[in-house]
Amino acid sequence: MRGGSAQDPHQLSSRQFILSNWLGGVADQPFAVWWAAEQHHIHPALSEAIERKFETPTADAELCQTWRNLIDAKRKNNLRYGGHDLAAYGVVSSANASGGWSEWHMQRLFEATTPRMAVRRSWTDVPVDRTASIDNLIAWEVHYPTYPEIDIPDEWLCRYVEGLRSNLTLAVALETRLRSEPYFMLRPFEPPNGDDEHDFGINHASDFAHRLVDALRRLIANDPQAASAEAKRLPPPLSPIFSQLHIWAAGQTKLSTAREAAALFRELDAEFLWDSDLERDLLAAIKARWNDLTDRDRTAVAKRFLKGRPAWEGVNRRDFRRYRTASTLNRLYWLQREGLAATAGIDVGAEISRLRRVLSDWTPEGAEAELERERHRAGWVQIDTDATNLLTLPPSEILAAIAAGGTRAGPLIERKPLKGLMEARPVQTLSALKFAERRGEAAAGSWSDILWDDARANDAPRVRLLIALRLAAMPEGLLIPNLQSAGFWLKQRGQALWRTYPEAYFKLWERLATTVAAHPDAAGSGILSDGEPDWVTSAINSVAGRLAELTSIIARSSAVTSCELWNRFANILATSRSPACQIDRNHPLVNWHMAEFSSALKTSVTTGSSAANMCRPVRPSLD
């Protein structure tokens, strides 16, 4: 409870101490590093044993440094409560319970949320090779502790901003230490329409930047002079994340003067001036301060846009020229769209016309889409199936109208009006697809949307018949990209189709089986697995597997009544010249289903009706 050893961990038992010394003795072998990387903590006795291993002049200096970094990372590991770092929540709870924040709480908060280096095992097998590279066994990353929602009192905002800036500076240094050009997953401080729902579901350096901006916004409202002073303490714009912060500050009249904003727009590194992740904030800042700039400064900005982005090493010059021209056209179009072209100091319209002669396929619509494109967004994607505007159109115009409407109805909202039309007007929908087929238009995606849709369970029998006949007669060039979706649809709706229209069922089954045999690459399972193949999962999710499973299900059902149809089906399978018979050789599970089918055929002959007993079905070939 007290004394000089109160903070020491529990002493190891004699057996554990011996094991620690042994592990320290083999610390120069790859498996030791691989083992240690996965542990949350390492006992000081083990750390000392490992350090002693490298206290010789002949020790591997690089491996020694790896161990030092690993042990240091484990010492700073605050993972508790099942692997979650929740120390910051305890600080917030303490501040609320004790009646308010204090300097002690602020220090504990920033200690608890300090980013740190973390190490884990790489996605490799256990290292058995003594010469294995350490770089292939462990992986380093920057760990960002869980950050709670905090309501900081106004009187503590300056201190809060100071701590956030310090932790962000450390985060950038750690990320740069890992890789020379780190990717910070930047998202705009000024999102479109005030929508700031860019939640990646993970902690990252960009989160510190957004918390810093939110705190500065509050500080602007409470103490503009203090906010301006804090903004000037930002590290220089030598990294993407600090460039983004300086760009945002340049757009705030209470954080920077017009001269300071102009200096940033003129002198910002070209790499960041053309960085797509910074574009939205940059253009928002330029627009906000445009009228504050002098004519000379506005012309300088426009000329930087006109000059275009610099080429990077190793790029194909012809491809880069097109890329640079498109980027320049987009920026000039933006000046025109925002009403800034008249005071830009250059003839923006004439320059756009000149560059369009170089890049003839550039369009204002494309530039608009690029400027408004979300760089990053995460969340649940919603499907908009509203087809109201399609109900009155003739079938020949439906797909064109869908294409004109685009695929997005908003952030994280995907438009699928054909699904809604299929539920409301199935015949009209299938007619539209037939028109597209006759005109040779690509409709594979439209068919896929319809066939994978769970709403097909509610289709009327005649709609199922129409879908089956369309698929059975579909041109090969259209059926192959839809082979997976067609196999899924028949597997899900095949029993209902068999009960009402068995001839259509056989027609489609044979067409799909024939296509599978002719194009096996298009019919394989879409499920990927590491290591040994998972034959069962692969078979179940292949088109051949679905056809075979459906066959055995129907063979066991009471719907088997027509001896003539069963003989026809058995002959399809048994005829060695028919490519359909090849599907039972793709997977062991397919063979098993075909054996079940053969058994069901025998049962229908020996126990069925008198008409069935007269039948002599041919046993399918199972080898």
Oligomer: single chain
Which consecutive residue ranges, at least 5 long each, have pLDDT under 50? Answer: 79-84, 195-201, 575-590, 604-623
Largest sheet: 3 strands, mixed
**Taking all residues together, what is the mean pLDDT?**
81
* Count of individual domains: 5
Please tell me how large the radius of gyration is. Answer: 34 Å
Q: In terms of structural class, how would the helical and strand content be classed? A: mainly alpha
Tertiary shape: globular
Strand line-up across the major sheet: 3-5-4
* Proportion of residues in extended strands: under 5%
Helical fraction equals 55-70%
Q: What separation lies between the terminal Cα atoms?
A: 76 Å
Helical region count? 31
Quantity of strands, as a count: 5
Describe the overall structure.
There is one protein chain. The chain is globular. The longest helix is centred in the first third of the chain and has 22 residues, at 157-178. Strands 3-5-4 form a 3-stranded mixed sheet, with no helix packed on it. A two-stranded antiparallel ribbon has the order 1-2. With 623 residues, the protein is mostly helical. The chain folds into 5 domains: 12-148, no CATH class; 152-293, no CATH class; 309-379, no CATH class; 381-441, no CATH class; 443-613. The chain has helices at residues 14-25, 30-37, 44-53, 61-75, 87-97, 103-112, 157-178, 205-222, 224-232, 240-250, 258-267, 270-273, 279-289, 295-307, 317-337, 348-358, 364-372, 395-404, 417-424, 426-438, 444-452, 461-472, 476-479, 483-500, 502-518, 520-523, 535-540, 543-556, 563-574, 588-607, 610-613; strands spanning 116-121, 138-143, 382-384, 408-410, 413-415.
